Amino acid sequence: MASDHDHDHDNSLSETVLRVKALESLLVEKGLVDPAALDAMVDAYENKIGPRNGARVVARAWTDPAYKARLMADATAAIAELGYSGAQGEHMVVVENTPTVHNLVVCTLCSCYPWPVLGLPPVWYKSSAYRSRAVIDPRGVLRDFGITVPDEVAVRVRDSTAEIRYLVLPERPAGTESLGAEALEVLVTRDTMIGTAKVSAP
Length: 202
Ligand code: FE
Description:
Order of helices and strands: HHHHHEEHHHHEEH
CATH class: Alpha Beta
CATH topology: Nitrile Hydratase, Chain A
Structural class: mainly alpha
Radius of gyration: 18 Å
Number of domains: 1
Number of helices: 10
Strand order of the largest sheet: 1-4
Number of strands: 4
Distance between the termini: 39 Å
Helix content: 40-55%
CATH superfamily: Nitrile hydratase alpha /Thiocyanate hydrolase gamma
Bound molecules: fe (iii) ion
């Protein structure tokens, strides 16, 4: 997308969707793109390239204190060390969930999201209900996702924009001390890196 933050409202968003669909139909009709190639690209971002990259970043941070320090200091560079960079991932900031702080990521204005580490955003992330309620009632949103954050734990809502793309470093669950990075990686789901889920021990 464009270099500036798209402050699209719902009407213009649906117009954008329609324009994209029209453009896709035209490109396919003219034989300029193969629909199977487009599907493969979407599948790659949603399932393959997608959140597994972020999970690798998290597992490395949990098991390598020096890497974690670099990640917290300059997330874009530390994430690029693992080979993940590119569109929608240029200005990464990692925020850490701890026993006293729970971070929740939203884009209140559209759907800014760190593609190189999380893939394509889920539909609910782009919904106006999530975008508005995350700010007004973050604890209520978290409850809807099945997380109860105790009153003494601060909830910080992080508003992603074109200037800053947030990734949550979730808490490493108790009982995983003996696990290595590869075993930890599979525990880290997409939602734990948005802040709408917690990582569970196996
Ligand atoms: Fe946005």
